[in-house]
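Obj.: predict assembly geometry.
Materials: sequence records (below).
Method: joint structure prediction, all chains together.
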Amino acid sequence: MIETLISVKDLTVRFKTDEGLITAVDGVTFDVKPGEILGLVGESGSGKSVTAKSLMLLNADNTVYDPKSSMKLNLHDQSIDILSLKKPQDQMIIRGGAISMIFQEPMASFAPAITIGDQMVEQLKLHSNMPDEKAKEISIEMLERVGIPEAGKRFNQYAFEFSGGMRQRAMIAMALSTKPKLLIADEPTTALDVTIQAQVIELMKELVDEFHMAIIFITHDLGVIAQTADRVAVMYLGNLVETGTVHQVIQQPAHPYTQGLINALPNLEDLDSPLTPVPGDIPSPLERPTGCVFNTRCSLSLGERCEAEVPHNFNVAPGHNVSCHLMEQRMAANE
Amino acid sequence: MSEVLIRSDDLSVYYPIGGGFLKPKSYVHAVDGINVSIEKGSFFGLVGESGSGKTTLGRALLKAAPISRGEVSYQDGEVSYDLGSLNGQDLKEYRKRAQLIFQDPYAALSPRMTVRDIIAEPLEVMRLTSSRDETDEKVRQIAAKCRLNLEHLRRFPHAFSGGQRQRISIARALVSDPKFIVADESVAALDVSIQADVLNLLKSIQKESGITFMFISHDLSVVAHVCDHVAVMYLGRLIETAPSRQLFSMPKHPYTKALLSAIPSLDPDERGKAEKLEGEIPSPTNPPPGCKFQTRCRFAVDKCRREEPRLEDSGGGHNVACHRWQELLA
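Observations (raw structure tokens):
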């Protein structure tokens, strides 16, 4: 049994633009174990999608990976250095083979003029040499598995004939038909209504158990994270500011940003207290703050120190890591 | 009982679909037989899934969607309008009083206009100010209210983040001194940390200026926090309306209960406890007979499949449209 499926170390991603190099992801390190759901949370512009896309080398041509970055995919018989995959044939393994991805807007992800079935068969045949009939059989089986009624008939329909929830189910079926070890789900329920969101979340959890695959679940919705993830990683402006188990991060958040995010959520149990926003706006990636990236919005900022010095990553409890200067005192007090 | 600002009676909006040479036209009943009254100075929430008709209802109250049947009346002291027959000068007057804030602040602002021009445009179009100085003064006032500073006014929208852009949209809606604002999913595109900020701004405007808001949202926890009164829509019908506290503490319609239960809880130990609602909202082109919710309701009986329930008062201004709400309370 392999221990870590994905191991990302010091991932730093920059984009070349007319205005210079923009840092989108800065020194991100994390692991994903087989069968684990890792929730990746952050606001727009925090770099969570760029991080996930890096695993499939799907970022645009102007992307520069820092030479220190390393991403390993560990399979039973081999360990693959993702950044060394240069040829498209070699990249098949991380693009639909061992790693699959589903997106926020399924309407934009299916080709509009090709039937759902043909698209499913096409990708199955790309990844294995199975005959058409076999690919069709597997596709219909998968459509049935994700709860699409009359899968045989649906197989021959186009994306526009599906409702939003059905489209997302079809996308999940397609992503899972190659039996990947890791599924990257980028805001898979954001465009769905709450009742449909609940159905899709339930389905994804069932499939994790059944296929024993891992999921990186990207979302800005902490409620969705609380209901799905085993472990959570919180990102802000390209940095990983806090990681831990779902209980640690949601119930005992230690980083001021995570605390701010949770306080900003409207809580149905407590309608009397006013909503408390995190002050200020996310800075533009062109104007990344020095020191701790969160210092411009942090209400607990220590001033000069936070503005000048990049905080260390402190291990505050087993499996709970926080990048914040405040942890130094906390750690000292505990000793 | 305070005054009612906007009242609708049997309001329906139908859109034609299909049809053509020798083919009969059919109609989608986007909004069907809605009776709603919005009190002056209140924050009225309208919730429902996509396709429930909430946006169409909001637009009909602004006379931005065709009113196919029924009536909408606006009454503010001496001023009153019957929206069905509103046109010409009266319609222009109504436009000053009723404004809309859109969902997507990235699409709603012209990229070629400075923030000052965007906010000033309604003043110029409606000829509300007589000189450029007066316009500038008014723009500065409103901008300050929405926490935009003078330097911001010279810039173009691309220089702003989502939260700031939404504040610009709000400033533009406020500049004509409206009495009624429809905010259609106005925080849906914003990040949580910013969302709270915009909600607080809208609330403070309501308290200070006494503007009446209709807040359209699919997010029940947001609605619970800001609204005084809430209406739940399903497939073009109102199925439950109540004062906010009452609706969230004791929902009576099975759909409202399911919606509330489907909100993902922040407590990781409450997994899988949500009541699952099967299926999806039916297409409005082919609505089911009887109660519109019967296809997904686990309490549906024969009567629900035959007869459509009417919205009835269950006490304390809590209205519910369900044949079995009394039984289900027990």
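Conclusions so far: Residues 192 and 198 of chain B are 10 Å apart (CA to CA).
To do: check interface contacts against the pulldown list.
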